[in-house]
Structure formats: C-alpha cells, structure tokens
Amino acid sequence: MLLLVDLDGVVYRGSDPVAGIAALLTARAAAGDNVAYITNNSMHYRADYVTRLASLGAPVSADRVITSPRATAMYLVEREPGIRRVLTVGASGLDRELRDVGLEVVGSSYAAERMAKEGLDGWTAAGHPDAVVAGLDPQLTYLRIAAAVDCIRAGARFIATNRDPVYPTERGLRPGAGSVIAAIESASGVVPLVIGKPEPLLLREAARAVGVDPRHAVVIGDGLHTDIAAAIAVGARSVLILTGVSTRAQAEALPPDRRPTAIATDATELASVLERLSADG
User: Hey, what domains does the chain have and what are their CATH numbers?
Assistant: First the structure.
C-alpha cells in the first residue's frame, strides 16, 4: 500500500512532533508499505525534510519527499520548456528546487532592490522573467509584491506553489502561501496556475516517484480542503487525522462525495484505520 503522508499538522506541528506518527510510519514501512511525503510547504529544500524526518525516526529518503516546489520545478521542466528565467516570491527552498532542474532564478529580494533604484519598469528593461513562481515568503515586502506584479503584467506566467490560507505551528495557525498569492493576484488581475493541493499535480508526482498509480494510494492529511480534496481529485482513498487544521465536525458537514474515507483522532486510531484499509486492498 502506498501512503502519501502530509507533513505539517500530521507528522509535526511547527517544531513539535505529533506523538506516535513517526513510529507508526516506520512500522508500516517494515510491513511492506511504500511511504512517501507530500507537502504544500514551499519554504524548505527536500534535504531539510530528510534530515528532520530521520531525526524523528520516520522512514525517509530524498526521492520520497515531494514538496510543492519540487513538483513545480518538475512541471516547468516537463510541461513549460519555454520557461527558463523565473522570478520567485518565496524562501530559499523554492529557489534551490528550481535551480536543481536548470532554471535561472531571480530572487524577489534582488528584484525589489533594483526596483527601489530603477522604478517599476527600469529593472525589467533588459527583459522580464518568463514566469513568476510564488509561495510562502516570510520576508514578504511591498516591493517584492510589486516586482512580481510588474513581471506578470509584462507577460510572465504566474504559477503558485499552493494556496494554503494558513499552516499549523506549535503556536497555532499562521498565514500561508495563499495570503501571498492573493496579494499578487489581486494587484495583477491574473489567476495563477496552482501546483499544490488540492490540485492533483503534487500527488501525481509523488506517486510517479515511487512507481505507483495514485489511485492505489492512501493519503493521510489534516486538511479537508487540501489533502482530502487532492486525494478525491486523483481517485485515492484518504484518512483525515485530527491533529492539524480540520475537525471531525467539518468533515461530517461535507457532502458524502467530499468526505475522507476514514477519520483518525491520533496515531493509535490511525494505526487501526490503516490496518483496515490494507485488509480491504
């Protein structure tokens, strides 16, 4: 059985691990399950996740971590070959994933600095980037938004790693990439192509990485409108774990065709659910 496991709100919340999850995933891997990780979080590089998951005792390798920046990079290389120069609004992990596939990356901090000196049009006079890729940017400024909008208005493709409005931390919910995307979209008037959940591209890339049809996967996530919606979009089974964003009441209020296959309160209940799903085939 292929388990596609979300990270924020499932394996950990901020710096705090979710009790029992790493041990459960290790046990499932030992029993023969394929375990891969999927995350909309666009701030970090894959190697950072490998280090963190290994420190928690979870089974992991670099090819089993599919982030929204990684899926975005693969999408651009495979489906948008005309895009070579990219302006990013985000953190260093996004930049590194795009550079890994050979794209030229212009950071929004550099663009903002040039704009401050040359004005909205001056810094792109030699040719604007082919695309703007935006995600969660903890250093977001007005000029970074303006740089992205300037490029999009000049014709650059607008791509969003994800639209998560919030993400869970040990201190509660914090603004997600969706807040950044909304600002750029509002000012540019252009709706982006979205790579991350609930769109299906991230899950399809993760399933492809391990050579399994995504319809045969079980998605484990904490977000009804991201993880569970993406699972439904690719025809996979899903488990909502109540350790992050969404609640049981919210799940039960949805129409039957938008609900998860199962709900688990914690790692103990999740173990029982996975046993049942494995037996069902």
Answer: 2-40+198-280 (3.40.50.1000), 83-194 (3.40.50.1000)
Report the alpha-carbon angle 43-82-91, nearest 5: 10
Whether residue 203 contacts residue 219, with contact meaning beta carbons closer than 8 Å, is answered with yes
Establish whether 8 is a catalytic residue.
Answer: yes
User: What's at 133, amino acid-wise?
Assistant: V
In angstroms, the CA 215 to CA 15 distance is: 32
So what's the pLDDT on residue 4? 97
- Amino acid occupying residue 112: A
Residue-wise pLDDT tens digits, 240-269:
999 998 999 999 999 999 999 999 999 999
Q: Rounded to whole angstroms, how far apart are CA atoms 102 and 100?
A: 6
Q: What is the reported pTM? A: 0.87
Per-residue pLDDT at 127 exceeds 80: no
For residue 6, give the nearest of 236, 256, 248, 280 by alpha carbon. 236
Structure tokens at 277: 């799903």
Contact 138, 94 (CB under 8 A): no
- Which residues on adjacent β-strands are paired with residue 237? 218
SS (H, E, C) the chain: CEEEEECECCCEECCEECCCHHHHHHHHHHCCCEEEEEECCCCCCHHHHHHHHHHHCCCCCHHHEEEHHHHHHHHHHHHCCCCCEEEEECCHHHHHHHHHCCCEEEEHHHHHHHHHHHHHHHCCCCCCCCEEEECCCCCCCHHHHHHHHHHHHCCCEEEECCCCCEEEECCEEEECHHHHHHHHHHHHCCCCEECCCCCCHHHHHHHHHCCCCHHHEEEEECCHHHHHHHHHHHCCEEEEECCCCCCHHHHHCCCHHHCCCEEECCHHHHHHHHHHHHHHC
